[in-house]
Input
Amino acid sequence: MSATRLSTPTPAASSVIADTLREQASTWLFVAKTLLAFFVTGWIAMRLALPAPSTAMLTTIIVANRQAGMVLAKSFYRALGTLAGAVAGVTIVAMFPQQRDLFLVSLSLWIGLCAGGATLYRNFKSYAFVLGGYTAAIIAIPVIDDPPAVFDSATARISEVLLGLLVSGVVSDVVFPSRMRDVLRRTAREQFAHFVGFVRDSVGGAIPRDSMERAHLRFVRAAVALEDLRSSVIFEDAEARSRSNHLRLFNQRFMAASTSFQSLHHLINRLERARRGAAAQALIRLYAPLGKALDAPIEAGAAARVLLPRLAMARDAMHASATRLRAGLNGEQDLRDFDTGASLLHRFAAELHDYVDAAAMLQTPRVVAGSAERVRFDRSNDFLGAGIATIRTTLTMLVLGAYWIESAWPSGASAMLLATVFAGLFATTPNPTRVTWYVTLGYIGGMLAGFVCEFFVLTQLDGYGLLVIGVAPFLAVGLVMMMSPRYASHGLGWAMGFAYILALKNGQTYDPAHFINDAVAQAVGLGAAAMSFVVIPPAIGSVWLRRRQLARLRAQVALAAEAPLPGLRHRFESVNHDLFSQVVAQTEPGSADSRSLIAWALAVHETGRALIELRHDMAQSDIPATLRPHLEASLRTLARFYERPDAQGYLLARDAVATAIAGVGEHAGMTSLLEHLHLIRMALLDGESVLAAYMPDTPLSEEIAHAP
Output
């Protein structure tokens, strides 16, 4: 009889099991903390005899998140939105106390403006606008027949919301807190390790274009993700607040170094394709010391202790070998190519050193106040898209308000409130119609659960303790779904629908007719919000907006060519990355739109950065009066070509750059200007770039061979 041997899990299987258990534990911890905040808030609100404890309780669900920093960030902006909405609500009621039509028009316009404002931001700042809109509605609509009660309504709503925010913040920060700072630190370390590793592994020189495109996509996402995390973590951690500017500087230096890195390898690839192997190989050999310097451990503290000294020695070695490598080249064109690449490589080495130095500053145990250069991460906002959201939301509120007035529908207020909430809340999502539909399904499920809970469970219980036992299982269903990527929208709808329809208060009433009427009104409000997105589709995620965003991305070259120089490098890099991340989030990976976007982003990054460096050197050089018009013409024609790309504009830009190169070559001491112009010229002649569609039918090697 053979013995049966119990198999032991493989390391991979054990890792999967451990990850699954960790994820389940995190989910149930979130559920437990949210339930705790929900019921503690309700108990305090009832003890304080607040008019609508359910408003405070619902607030805890809306701001619920696994991470304490996210809860505090949402709470902060929700508080701002609540206060702004309260002021707006009181003002509107005070202006039109006896004029219902003007009251509803003003309220609808305010809600629409808030929805439009929400689309301008991609973090929790948008949440403040959403709250500003529907808080005004929550305060003003219930007192439409009793205007003097608006102050009591505003005071009650502010008290209820702030109570919910306070309890949620305390519970999230005290009960087994999950710190965003740990995620931020891990993200910063991963960004640093991935970029340094990619640079180290690229020491061979040529990197295929598709690999560079994928790398560029990773770099952009890493930069934007780090900025989003930084803006949230500052709410939960004093150290993160003190290091906030260091993190911005770290991120800006990363963006600058990654752009120069891409330009360098595009140049080497172009030289290889144009059969200028001598210059390309000389640049690869010049690059080699960087790869050796980065071949070192990258653990905590290694940036200052190991990498910085090695990078300093690598830069010295590069300067020493540049003259020797240049002497081994023959021909004016090879020398010009080498000089252009060497200048770009030295710039990249300096920026890489600065990036590692910024990482070293973050690794220091103490923060020195004012020790970091102050920089900003600028965002790119589309005001026309915000205008569409404003018009759509305003019209939705006007239609519902008109129907409410004409029909004298008793539950019309509930319909308007729900439409207000969801029209603003989902105006910022790429596919609001689908999201609203998913939330509506969950909301209806939550209302059905609320009916069962209220009339079959709560009627059999007495006291707050038993109320908790009766309500918690129903609410937990929605909270668990909120933690599932697939059912998160359903879960949010379930939790909100259940809490809103239950409307827990001190003197709980059990009126099935009122419950059903209110449920129907809320369903109508949700349906109106969903229909508004069908009738007036949102700009977010649309082909129209992607084209506008792509046009704005190309317009960054005009910014680089014409905007004031102070702070331009930081502004150019951050706006580029923000624009690129917006469009990537709204395009299907691998699609034609996605590939076209990445190709344009690479061209814009390279050309725009070269123009900025050219302008900086122009500002520091004594340029002859006869030469300046040629340089300015090259800047102007490049800006116009990228704004409206066509074949004629391409030829004008190419010829203007060629003329500028010829003019600079006639004057001594203009080497740096010549190198920048030559890099721009090479980018214009790259037959594998997105600019190839506007080129005459001439092979790349022939074009470059005849380049002046």
